[in-house]
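A favour between colleagues. Tell me how you read the following sequence-structure pair.

===
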Amino acid sequence: MKAVILAAGEGTRLRPFTNSRPKVMLPIGNRPILEYVVHALVANGVRDLILVVGYKKERIMSYFGDGSRFGANISYIVQDRQLGTAHALTFVKDLVDDRFLVLSGDNVIDKEMVSTLLSLGEGNSVLVTESNEPSKYGVVLLKDDRVVAIEEKPRDRIGNIINTGLYSFEPDIIPIMEAGVKIGNYGITQVLSAHLPDMRLRAALAKGEWDDAVYPWDLVRLNEIVLESHGQAISGTIEPGVTIKGSVQIGKGTRVRSGTYIEGPVIIGEGCDIGPSSCLFPSTSIGDGVSIEPFVAIKNCVIMNNIVIGAHSHLCQSVVDDNVRLGPGFSCYCGTAYVRMDDGFHNVPKIGCMIGDESTTGARVVISPGCIIGQGCRIGDGAKVSTNVENRSTVI
């Protein structure tokens, strides 16, 4: 069996973190989101994978290659214009001649999800799940096990059963998608909605782990979920006087200096320098090449690669992108905030700050909860930031 993984989109609502990478390559637990999808398929014996790529496709292709490193056989189809998911499926019409799976590359899933999808047998099917925030997704209306309507991101609450974006399709779905695209219906759900009266689309309740990052702060939540399943694996150099509790992974070439306290679940990548006398609390992921100076406290954060966090800094519920430099005494506490996004304001409980790649701060900078700092920003000594900062801005 073949699986088509849709990985062409940018993920505009996740900016600034998707300015330099597609959404599927955002790191969760120090792995790209897409890697969880690949592992889930391979664990179920589905190894022939077709990746539909587009936006910054080189990041995906260079990381996954031919798939052999992951036990898979990966081929690529380029969707030059990311018009939608139905448009993406039209590119694989000559590559599928039997039942095939369709998955979104930007959802964190486990092998149980794929196992449920495989168990559905012949016919066209979709996995659904319950959500506390159905307005962020496509709400599915059912009659027994048949889908009778799909409403994308409804303003009014009409139900809490949502579409996971995981499908099992027969090859005859491709001409239906092509016909839909010709009349301007570029999304899979758009095309399916138009044909639901005269086609049978079965729904099955998903079993297993499924989650999606829609906004930047969702990365913290997904990271927390993923780290719960990580085990213990310690490499590198651990100096005397280091305290390690719970599930902690430490990569090769990393040095954890004396007096540092680490309480898992925590994952630290390769080539890092931690401490001395710093504290890493649950659920924190630290990428590769990160330097954390003395007396730093970090809790429930996603810290990506090649980052310097200056002495006496404090971060909570935050995401920090690649190549960021935070000066000594940096502070971002977490709290409830109204976060401004392109689609309006969002009331987000327990949020820190979001910092785009290549940004730097001076000493004693304080960032208020809910602030999004763009890519390539410069924030001067002693600045207090209480609103979003656009890409390549300077704050003095």
In short: The two ends are 57 Å apart (CA to CA). The chain has two domains: 2-214, 226-395. The first helix runs from residue 33 to 43. The chain is about 15% helix and 35% strand.
